[in-house]
Amino acid sequence: MMELAILKQTGEDTGRKVTLSEEIFSVEPNDHAIYLDVKQYLANKRQGTHKSKERAEISGSTKKIKKQKGTGGARAGSIKSPVFRGGGRVFGPKPRDYSFKLNKKLKQLARKSALSYKAKDNSLVILEDLVFDAPRTKDYIKLLSNLSLSDKKTLLVVGENNQNVYLSSRNLQKAKVRNVNDLNTYELLDADSLVFCEGALSKLETLLSK
Questions:
Q1: What's the confidence (pLDDT) of residue 1?
Q2: Are residues 185 and 111 in contact, defined by beta-carbon separation less than 8 angstroms?
Q3: Which range marks the domain in which residue 69 is found?
Q4: Where are the alpha helices (H) located in 69-172, listed in sequence order?
Q5: What ranges does the record give for the region Disordered, renumbered to this chain (predicted)?
Q6: Which H or E element spans position 44?
Q7: Same domain, 68 and 146
Q8: How many structural domains is the chain composed of?
Q9: What are the Cα distances from residue 18, in Å, to 13, 15, 28, 208?
């Protein structure tokens, strides 16, 4: 059983603790599930708009460029042949969709595995629910400084959409804010430290226990 202190925005201890669910933060990590989920995330981000022209799509004359025999060289029927400079490409890339589907339980296992790795590495911080009156980047920088996370890549997980918090972090290269419903394995592993708002933890348990 793993307990963590709940911190204030100032970095001080609130005096309260939260018990992390063993079904989420203490599972036996499945590296292959993580690999597949990360692979799907990166594949889904690919545009797949690459395209090269084949010989049928090249503009140019179809006239036979030299006689069939007697030249001492190989026969050539068209200037658009792939063997000539400016000709079409053989088996070139075509627009395609790289996305693929994964089983929902496998994706849940991948996220649990990533969270278990972070818990094992003591890379979790539990924060009381944030309230920003207005979007200010300097307020978010101060928050990270209070938590001693200024020089680390962080992922802040909120329970509900908080536009002010999101906008405050948007200009910071190493800081990301995600709703608990939008968590993905890639970003969980990419962050050096995970900062969970108190209200996001209960929603996470509900989300990953379905």
A1: 64
A2: yes
A3: 52-92
A4: 104-120, 137-146, 163-169
A5: 46-78
A6: helix 31-45
A7: no
A8: 2
A9: 12, 10, 21, 18
